From TrEMBL:
Organism of this sequence: Acidovorax soli
UniProt keyword list: ATP-binding, Cytoplasm, Ligase, Nucleotide-binding, tRNA processing
Originating gene: tilS
A cellular component term, taken from the record's GO annotations: cytoplasm
UniProt-recorded name of the protein: tRNA(Ile)-lysidine synthase
E.C. no: 6.3.4.19
UniProt note: domains: The N-terminal region contains the highly conserved SGGXDS motif, predicted to be a P-loop motif involved in ATP binding.
Stretches assigned to the tRNA(Ile)-lysidine synthase substrate-binding domain: 239-299
Nucleotide-binding recorded as keyword: yes
């Protein structure tokens, strides 16, 4: 938090839980008159009104302007309720930043994820078999929608955040779902983090270092994919793809499918596509492989992708 120097005015995403309560308090103390808060009311759980009340009382006491955004975070089929809520929340933050008037325009938004959240994200990525992009976990800073986003607590342990809050005499609302071990993240927090603490006391720092190595590697792979896609064309030409190593083919194909078709192949689908590419040496060789909601096919000298649902 010491090195955190955001462009002001700053808005803090305030859920009412310990972490964002602490972040708002620290920021309001550091930059009086330059900080505001955004609370998103999901209406998903009975405790939502308690969260809102806590946020209103806290902001009144700190004399911090508060915007409460009500959202409908119902999830689409195939999407987890947590992902839907997170996506809707980010959209709500962006809408508030966009609507902030010129005089008090929000330049940065800070979120309160801390080092334990980062370790949980990394372990979740490992449990899904993620590649380096997933193992990069959460970035500390990024830019989107003309706003700088920050996670200033990413190197601070969860217990330190709560200890600081207690020392400040500040209360918070405990999210009742945080102890529900039906959620994987909560099982990681309750069962794995204490075991990691016992086995590797420095795990928060060392895991964070691995995540930032992965982030750097992911950036390089992305740059290489852009260069290779410029070489093969989009959609890519089969003969030019075949001139690349198998690892580079995999990298550029993943990139092409993501940027051009917003789809990600499974490891098995990509493996099959690479095998087909290697075998594609005759004019008549057909390629037709399911990827995401559609198919990668051969179309003359190139690959192509189509979604049959969109064609009808
Ligand atoms: N309903 C919300 N309204 C505003 N900001 C939110 C809300 N939910 C989460 N955030 C922001 O996003 C961050 C990450 O959310 P996440 O749900 O992972 O954590 P959290 O357990 O809610 O954190 P906290 O201890 O602050 O409640 C929060 O620390 C907070 O800054």
């Amino acid at each position: 938090m010491a090195a955190f120097s955001p462009a002001l005015p700053l808005a803090v995403g305030l859920s009412g839980g310990a972490d964002s309560t602490a972040l708002l308090l620290a920021c309001a103390q550091k930059w009086p008159g330059q900080v505001q808060a955004i609370h998103v009311h999901h209406g998903l759980q009975a405790a939502a009104d308690d969260f809102e009340q806590h946020c209103r009382a806290l902001c009144r006491r700190l004399q911090v302007p508060l915007t409460v955004q009500r959202i409908d975070a119902r999830h689409a089929s195939g999407e987890s309720p947590e992902d839907a809520a997170r996506r809707a929340r980010y959209k709500a933050f962006e809408a508030v930043a966009l609507a902030s008037n010129a005089q008090n325009a929000i330049h940065s938004i800070a979120l309160a994820q801390h080092a334990d959240d980062q370790v949980e994200t990394l372990l979740l990525a490992l449990s899904r078999g993620a590649g380096v992009a997933g193992l990069a976990a959460m970035p500390a800073d990024w830019e989107r929608g003309g706003v700088r986003w920050h996670r200033p607590l990413l190197r601070v342990a969860g217990v330190q955040v709560r200890d600081w809050l207690r020392a400040q005499g500040q209360d918070w609302v405990e999210d009742p779902t945080n102890t529900d071990e039906r959620f994987t993240r909560n099982r990681i927090r309750a069962q794995l983090l204490p075991a990691l603490d016992a086995a590797f006391p420095a795990f928060r720092d060392t895991f964070a270092r691995s995540a930032s190595h992965a982030a750097q590697a992911a950036e390089l792979l992305d740059e290489l994919a852009q260069q290779d896609l410029a070489l093969t064309g989009s959609p890519p030409e089969i003969r030019l793809l075949q001139g690349l190593s198998r690892a580079r083919q995999a990298n550029v194909l993943r990139h092409w499918l993501r940027v051009a078709h917003a789809t990600t192949p499974s490891a098995a689908q990509l493996g099959e596509l690479l095998d087909q590419l290697a075998a594609c040496t005759t004019r008549g060789h057909r390629i037709h492989i399911k990827v995401g909601r559609g198919f990668v096919v051969r179309s003359g000298p190139r690959l192509d992708w189509y979604n049959p649902e969109v064609l009808v």
